[in-house]
Amino acid sequence: MEALMHVGFRVYSDSINPSSRFKSCKSPSILMEGRRTNLTCIRAQQPGTKEGSVSATAFSGSSDSLVEELKTKDWEIKALKDEIAATQGIRIRRRPPTGPPLHYVGPFEFRLQNEGNTPRNILEEIVWNKDTEVTRMKEKASIYSLKKALENAPPPRDFLGALKASYVRTGLPALIAEVKKASPSRGVLREDFHPVEVAQAYEKGGAACLSVLTDAKYFQGSFENLEAIRSAGVKCPLLCKEFIVDAWQLYYARTKGADGVLLIAAVLPDLDIKYMLKICKMIGLTALVEVHDENEMDRMLAIDGIELIGINNRNLETFEVDISNTKKLLEGKRGETIRQKDILVVGESGLFTPADIAYVQEAGVKAILVGESIVKQKDPTEGIRQLFGKDILG
Ligand SMILES: O=P(O)(O)OC[C@@H](O)[C@@H](O)c1c[nH]c2ccccc12
Hints:
Layout: E1 22-32, E2 35-44, H1 63-87, H2 122-140, H3 143-150, H4 159-170, E3 174-179, E4 182-183, E5 187-188, H5 195-205, E6 209-213, H6 223-231, E7 238-241, H7 248-255, E8 260-264, H8 270-283, E9 286-291, H9 294-301, E10 308-312, H10 324-330, H11 332-340, E11 344-348, H12 354-363, E12 367-370, H13 372-375, H14 380-388
Parallel strand pairs: 3-6, 3-12, 6-7, 7-8, 8-9, 9-10, 10-11, 11-12
Antiparallel strand pairs: 1-2, 4-5
Helix pairs in contact: 3-7, 5-6, 5-14, 10-12
Bound molecules: indole-3-glycerol phosphate.
């Protein structure tokens, strides 16, 4: 590996010449491969427009070179973000790698890890598609309109509180029951799929919370399902099961009635997790932060303010499921830190039997996230009874 010695941001306060249409700021300052480099970014501002709203139309006259320069900076920043993610052990690249823009003369020797624009695994493919999808959705609803829509959104309910209450009441891991029609690994799980009926059956069976898949392309889910379940009067708090790659999606999920969202550590660098946690707090969403391996767990344990961690037994890159993953990540010092920080742990995926539940409970989880084994049953209420080996309503 090339010697990536240190990557650090130093964002200087803008040196603004009020009479100028262009602001110049130095950011970031980077020591890469032993060399310190300062990027100079140009931000175009037309009189009367909001700062930071860069648009090619803002340039006139000698616009071509400035547009080129902006494209280059944009590329550099994206490439830099992937570099930072890689230093945190994140293998998922947020976008297909692209070479530098034509005539690139920038200071970086970015390594292109995959010249072909093919995703390396299913999670990467999902994330690349999500990025495109979100870009399109953002064109239809600006962040400003979403913020406004928050005022009329159904009020957030206490997702974490519902899990804790259920655990105290039953002495068993609280159930987050997943409304899931299909998945890339298992195909269609329930042919005759009526999301509201499934949700109501879960509630009747004693689920503490529900998880509703909203990704359409890979899971045949939708935000309509989420909205319909919420407006049908289901009382269980709802997790919006999405691949979050942009803070915009948090606002969107909240306007559709979500009480919680999933943040996947394999996809989001630490800075994004911290930023998104803040937004979640601000708008009343509970964040379920998902990890799959030791590195992701350690990264998340180093971040303050995480109250809910899900350990996914399914490797989203290979689809392999192994429930001993939950145990492995809760052993020793990690388990101790989790107890000290009073983090509630959710065991996710691949849970089918009372023995599975007992195994992950023994490992230290106080909640479980279950889809396949209960959504496949003709009567999902009965599916819950079978999963626990008893009635959990009592
Ligand atoms: O159907 P299962 O094996 O019971 O798994 C449910 C849930 O854990 C799984 O759907 C899941 C966990 N994390 C995810 C992230 C994205 C999509 C799906 C998931």
